[in-house]
Amino acid sequence: MTTCPYCGWPDSDVVTVLSRHRTPEGETVWTRCACGSLQTRVIDAAGTKVVLRGRPHEPESPRNVTAPGDVPCER
Ligand SMILES: [Zn+2]
């Protein structure tokens, strides 16, 4: 099991589900952690995997705005 690197929250305990999208492989779920970190999870036959993770409460900066799916992996 993995935990949030910012607050230690277990990834298996979803705090807030922002949106779900069906994909050919299964499902992509956008969630927000207790600390405000945005996560992208991919659910397929193998289970749930956190593939992308944003920083908690990102400071507002126009240069740092990225579209969903464009967030670099910060593992
Ligand atoms: Zn967190």
Characteristics of this structure?
75 residues; mainly beta; four-stranded antiparallel sheet; 4 strands; globular; binds zinc ion
Explain briefly what this protein structure is.
The chain has about 80 residues and is an all-beta fold. The protein contains no helices and four strands.
If you had to describe this structure to a student in words, what would you say it looks like?
The chain has 75 residues and is mainly β. The chain is 0% helix and 39% strand. The chain contains no helices and 4 strands. The chain has a 4-stranded antiparallel sheet with strand order 1-2-3-4, with no helix packed on it. The protein starts with 15 loop residues before the first strand and ends in a 22-residue tail after the last strand. The model has no long low-confidence stretch (mean pLDDT 85). The structure holds zinc ion. Zinc ion binds next to loops.
